[in-house]
Amino acid sequence: MGKFLLRRLAQIVPTLFFVSVLIFGLQQLLPGDPAIAMAGEERDPEVIRFLRSKFHLDEPLPVRYGYWAAGVLRGDLGESVRIQKPVAGLIAEKLPVTLQLAAMAIAIALLIGVTAGIVAAVKKDTWVDYAANLLALWGLSTPNFWLGILLILAFAVHLGWLPASGYVSPFEDLKGNLEAMIMPAFVLGNAFAAVLMRHTRSAMLQVLTSDYVRTARAKGLEERVVVLKHALRNALIPVITLGALGLGELLGGAVLTEQVFSIPGFGKLIVDAVFNRDYLVVQGVVLVTATAYLALNLLADVAYFFVNPRMRV
Predict the structure, then answer these.
(1) Which of 126, 108, 120, 261 is nearest to 204 (CA)?
(2) Domain with residues 88-272, CATH architecture
(3) Which of 39, 230, 252, 267 is 20 to 30 A from 105 (CA-CA)?
(4) In the predicted structure, residue 309 carries a pLDDT above the cut 70
């Protein structure tokens, strides 16, 4: 396992380098000049010249990348040109919000998707299977922003059970935090639960026809033990992969949901940065998201060793 981890870490380093070059290069294709945007309405040429010099905007592209990459290696992601705050500080402020939202969404998705997938596989070609597939189709077909608006109308406007939008820190009010986060978490988890359900059902159907499952049944084991202990453990491998990839996607892909529910997370941060041409914030957010995505893939690979003993060989 140690050699495997070293090989995977050796692959991550060049991948991150390529991602950093791609992030920096594509960022330069955005229209507009950040120096002009920062200069205000008067656009004094002296001010524009000073800003370009301060943020190295007058340097060649490779030199600018070198400045940025050197800062990243030191843990310095630069400074936001709009609000004059370190990018690392902004990310540290917004990341816990999106992490909580993504974790709650994954928990809801696993609870609904894996459970429905197991039941649908065990009850294949029955009304339960058809209902689970219909639920998955609904989850895949429903746009997140539309479902979010419906939930706000139902639970906030008409019933008054939950707040329509906003965010409360769990350290200030845990109950208020959960009330504010449950609807956006369900919106994100609903779509991902549909994907998990389809993959869990497919994996379970394949495993349930295996020889070792037939042997376990022939030994007289209870069906619950056969399904949960023998079949599910081997069917979890694609689910682990999907869970890790899904969590990585939620860290950077919850933009619409955070906008609908006015949650100050990664999504709102990067949208504001793009509109204000705050290049360093965009680069920092995307780089952190890409790093988290690669780290979650590595954790998924490590989890294989604990779920499936054959992987250790």
Answers:
(1) 120
(2) Orthogonal Bundle (1.10)
(3) 230
(4) no
